[in-house]
Amino acid sequence: EPEDQLKLRPPIITIMGHVDHGKTTLLDRIRDSRITASEAGGITQHIGAYKIEHDGKPVTFLDTPGHAIFSAMRARGADITDIVVLVVAANDGLMPQTLEAIDHAKKANKTVIVAINKCDLESANPMHVKTQLAERGLQTTDFGGDVECLEISALKGTGVDDLLDLLALQAEVLELKANPKGHARASIIEAKYQQGRGAVASVIVESGTLKTGKPFICGPFAGKVKALINDRGETIKEATPGTPVEVIGFEELPRVGDSLVEMESDRDAKKLAAERQDELRAERLKVPQK
Ligand code: GTP
Ligand code: NA
Ligand code: MG
Questions:
Q1: Signal sequence: where (predicted)?
Q2: What residues line ligand 1, using a CB cutoff of 6 Å?
Q3: Relative to the CA of 143, which of 30, 256, 288, 289 has its CA 20 to 30 Å away?
Q4: In angstroms, what is the span from residue 233 Cα to ligand 1's centroid?
Q5: pTM for this entry
């Protein structure tokens, strides 16, 4: 991409950690913190991700904790996560799924920020967690390493602002940029059939600006953006890089991790879809070689 076309984009954050260590509580706490009094009680539509503004800087969170979505996306070559927040309960320490998450993040070469959670508990032992992390090759900064680590309570909200500060800062360090011009490309993060709306998918825009009315290809199917709905349930006209948005206008249900790519015309989209369907058919007909 020409350097001058690139603009800063929000970081995309995935939260991982062991069962019951507080991933959902943290995601809820962060999401609720940006809801203003006038919106209180108004339920935000769930679209699998949300974007907040922290000190004027946007940060996008995948709203599906756990490893499944991360793995499903990577299996399709979709690699949209920039930073992994590893949640570890301070009273429990590193557990099997914590180790699995560390493994996933390492393999994918992701920046990991550790949130030692439940620090409000009497039995919290953040020092022990840091020792365990160091034993796994994740030296936190106070242990002379370079892994950023915060002690938080997702339940009480303690340290959550510091975590957001750190995420915004890390995003700057990583210099996350994308070109908002040109044809849009987005990754499917969630897809479902809905009564009266057909196949609906949530995407995160990776580059370009996704606009209503534009034709696209997604897997072996053509489509056209009929409507875009943001994470507050509002209809919008366009979505820029790093923005999660719900897209209506799929011919068929896409798969998580599939790429939606804007096309020049309906004709181009249909032509490419036909080619991809032919390829799939040919593959299915292939007789295994002896
Ligand atoms: P799974 O989705 O089942 O893997 O769990 P999770 O990681 O999403 O944990 P969840 O947010 O559901 O929290 C599990 C339990 O821990 C709940 O009872 C929360 O209220 C509690 N919890 C979460 N964060 C904190 C915290 O900071 N302090 C305390 N004391 N409890 C917490
Ligand atoms: Na739980
Ligand atoms: Mg949960």
A1: none
A2: 17, 19-25, 65, 117-118, 120-121, 153-155
A3: 30
A4: 27
A5: 0.92
